[in-house]
Amino acid sequence: MNELLARILDAHGGVERWTRYEKVEATIVSGGGLFALKGVLQDSAPRRMTVWLHEERSSVLPYGAPDQRTMFTPERIAIEKLDGAVVAERYAPRDSFAGHQMTTPWDPLHRAYFNGEALWTYLTTPFLLAMDGVRVEETEPWREGEETWRVLRACFPASIETHCLVQDFYFGADLMLRRHDYTVNIAGGLAAAQLMSTYAEADGIRLPTKRRAYGRGPDRRPILDMLLVSIEISDVNFFSSSLLTVQNQKGVSPW
User: Fold this and answer.
1) Nearest Cα to Cα of residue 208 among 185, 189, 231, 184
2) Taking the CA of residue 225 as centre, how many other CA atoms within 13 Å lie in the half-sphere pointing to its CB?
3) Three state DSSP letters for 172-227
4) pLDDT in tens, 46-59
5) Integer angstrom CA distances of residue 88 from 6, 91, 98
6) For residues 57 and 249, what is the distance between their CA atoms, to the nearest angstrom?
7) Integer distance in angstroms from the first to the last C-alpha of the chain?
8) Residue 93's closest CA among 70, 124, 123, 122?
């Protein structure tokens, strides 16, 4: 493993602890100008996000109605009732974005897909960078004011659905994530720089709770008057397989 990445993972709670957990749940509140560009309403109501840590799978509740949730995997996006009844679904969902540009409208399944792949990426970072098939190398450091941020460039395999195949992750002297650069391929290759702040610890894992994704200019700097997406994260809980078994025995929903 890359030496810098190994230190970063230790600073975020450690691989040994991470591998003991099966999923994470968090309350999210999202906003930003991207949703208006896509013709979809984005209210400030909190939603509960569930992300599986060792497979690409995620769900958000509620979605479209109080008794509905999404279910995302790379092969399928679906809107379901809480009892599992399918409201709408789409297989090979990335193909439905072919030809999309920044202002191409989204339908509910497009939006559900974006939420699923984006939040799965964010809530598994930085441990995502150590997954099978992900290649990581350190690139030129970035000077931000009085700070110098070290940069890891990740090349993702095609089997992982994420914003794009090559992404840059910036870490401060404390090894915490400061910034994440990518292009949103499903929105015409829109270049974004996402800034992170306000770290918290949940069940021994550290993660940023405020995320702001801005358009990224040709000078690689965020365009601060072009807020694409904002995300507030709270109430984070990590669950091990043993705890999930107890919940299932008590009749608690695994979602």
Assistant:
1) 231
2) 0
3) CCCCCEEEEEEEEHHHCCEEEEEEEEEEEEECCEEEEEEEEEEEECCCCCEEEEEE
4) 999 999 999 999 99
5) 41, 11, 20
6) 22
7) 33
8) 70
Model-level pTM? 0.92
Amino acid at 247: Q
User: How far is residue 109's CA from residue 221's CA, in Å, rounded to a whole number?
Assistant: 31
Give me the pLDDT at residue 246, please. 47
Give the list of residues 6+ apart from residue 95 with CB closer than 8 angstroms, or none. none
Q: Which residues of 33-65 are buried (b: 16+ CB within 10 A; e: fewer)?
A: ebbebbeeebeeeebebbbbbeebbbbbbebee
- Cβ contacts of residue 231 below 8 Å, gap of 6+? 28, 29, 30, 119, 122, 210, 211, 212
Q: Which residues pair with 229 in a beta bridge?
A: 213
CA distance 166 to 31: 25
Token pair listed for 186: 């499903």
Note the pLDDT tens digit of each residue in 76-90: 999 999 999 999 999
